[in-house]
Amino acid sequence: MKLQTEYMQDLMDRVIKNHPSQPEFHQAVQEVLVCMEPVAKAYPEYVKAGIFERMVEPERIIIFRVSWVADNGDVKVNRGFRVQFNSAIGPYKGGLRLHPSVNLGVIKFLGFEQIFKNSLTGLPMGGGKGGSDFDPKGKSDGEIMRFCQSFMTELSKHIGADTDVPAGDIGVGAREIGFMFGQYKRLRNEFTGVLTGKGLNYGGSLVRTEATGYGCCYFTQAMLETKGESFAGKVVVISGSGNVAIYATEKATQLGATVVALSDSGGYIYDPAGVDLKLVKRLKEVERKRISEYVKERPDAKYTSGCSGIWTIPCDIALPCATQNELDGDAANALVANGVVAVAEGANMPCTPQAVEVFLEKGILFGPGKAANAGGVATSGLEMSQNSMRLSWTFEEVDEKLEAIMRNIHRQAKAAAEEYGEPSNYVLGANIAGFLKVANAMYLQGVAY
Ligand code: NDP
Ligand code: 2IT
Known about the structure:
Order of helices and strands: HHHHEEEHEHEHHEHEEHHEEHEHEHHHH
Number of domains: 3
Bound molecules: NADPH dihydro-nicotinamide-adenine-dinucleotide phosphate, (2Z)-2-iminopentanedioic acid
Strand content: 15-25%
Structural class: alpha/beta
CATH architecture of the largest domain: 3-Layer(aba) Sandwich
Strand order of the largest sheet: 9-8-7-6-10-11-12
Largest sheet: 7 strands, mixed
């Protein structure tokens, strides 16, 4: 995926120069700029108005110290980040990631992708992302609480229901959102929808927990339907065993498929009879154990250390739902050799550019993350609407809206891909459809001098 025009190459060179040592951010920008070359040609007014330059520069970055007290009394220090990338179509919106690999470049790549993802949902949400290099693994509930409270003490100065609305991501689920919401309310004396993914009895939405995984399957189902196919009878491999992976497994199974593999950062399990989701939920959601524990209770399943081998398991559908760059060119070739029909990114940027190229060249149905995993943030948007209206919709109502949004994203991406001459390229279609709405809003709102 090389840039063809001098204009875009020059812009990419400047991004690399101005944001050094941020390879994930460069990767995300390069992918979008490749897709923007025909857009720049079709909309010279956007070139003149500097829309492309403005789009790759975050509106605001906040970096702060987070100090907290460990159970043994030691004081620990982490770094907190919030990148408020683009507010053209709504308040900044996007998750918070707690993982030792978090740095500014990672948060910027996630915030950048979020702009286009949120635009595709059709809901009024701008793009942002945040997090910290804090590692929640092995921490007590008390330590998690004190970290979250300290993190929110600073973050609370920069967010608000109409300004910036964070949510979960890797390492941030219902427990962390609860601690952060409690601290925000305490500091501001305000009960507002400042975070999404809240508990159901204090403003959360039904289906938010399931939404990213379910949405990924709804998107995949829509792609399969274009070939007269469906999930029914298919073998599915899913990486990760966190929030997205668990609910992708649940929906794929409901749609008639057999999910045979899941993983975590230590390794993967292969259970040819179909994974026992009840067991996975207990191990991961309740006991917070490693996926290796699974085989102790399912002796016919096999555990293998290391993550990349999961893509050598023969399957019809692969859903990478763990983390960025977890599926490379070799893994993509192995999937293709084993007859994969569809790949959809439940995680953000899990496929390397080489892997994406393999899928596109071989005509595999490939759903990029900003389209395929938009169900989570879409349902966050629905949570914001319910909070504003001070009411709650039923599970069925939210699920129906989620499915309609995912099908609409599929339609938009497909239509844009067709319009720009590459009908089966959902990467091109999603980037263009997501971009154009934001670009138009920026254009109409003028330039600040
Ligand atoms: P969780 O924290 O619930 O789960 C993350 C899973 O990915 C765990 O199984 C974890 O294993 C694995 N993982 C994390 N980092 C690595 C790594 N470096 N190498 C290998 N495996 C890793 O997070 P989510 O399920 O919420 O998020 C998964 C992906 O989906 C992320 O890319 C996230 O950005 C994306 N996403 C999430 C949304 C949401 O609503 N939650 C919405 C849209 C996208 P381990 O426990 O061993 O670390
Ligand atoms: O990457 C993502 O879209 C998320 N982590 C969810 C963001 C949100 O605001 O719900």
